Amino acid sequence: MKTPVQIKRVYEAPSDTDGLRVFIDRLWPRGVSKDAFHYDLWCKDLAPSPALRTWFGHKPEHWDGFRRDYEAELQDEQMQVRMGEVFAAAQGRRITLVFGAKDPEHNHALILADAMNGYAKRHRLG
Question: What PANTHER family does this protein map onto (predicted)?
């Protein structure tokens, strides 16, 4: 396995290679029924803080500041513990972080996946 953590939009179909599907938004995705959406864990606590999410507003011009501040949030001890819990739940399988944002280049899933892949490398997981 190249990297233990990958990302996928909520609106993409699940696949056999997804492993543990972790929904990482604080809010339920628009237009998706609870019966149709397949995920194993909903980790609202790994999403950016409400204040940071609101400030970012998915505006590309805020991306650098958002990345910096969200990376700082992810260094919090509770966030690190939660990442470890997700890896434990995956039991060695790939982890797919599932998110609802439209922009494939400016979303929190990219930052969280990088952080979790770094976590996996530091802890020799995956």
Answer: CYTOPLASMIC PROTEIN (PTHR36849:SF1), CYTOPLASMIC PROTEIN-RELATED (PTHR36849)
| pLDDT of the residue at 68 | 98
Report the helix count and the strand count for the chain, using DSSP H and E: 4, 4
Contacts of 17 by beta carbon, 8 Å cutoff, 6+ apart: 94
What residues does each domain of the chain span? Answer: 5-122
pLDDT of residue 123: 93
Contacts 24+ apart (CB under 8 A), 83-89: 83/46, 83/115, 83/116, 83/119, 84/119, 84/123, 86/20, 86/22, 86/41, 86/43, 86/46, 86/116, 87/4, 87/116, 87/119, 87/120, 87/123, 87/125, 87/126, 89/20, 89/40, 89/41
pLDDT digits (tens, 9 = 90+) for 68-93: 999 999 999 999 999 999 999 999 99
Which tens digit of pLDDT belongs to each residue from 20-37? 999 999 999 999 998 989
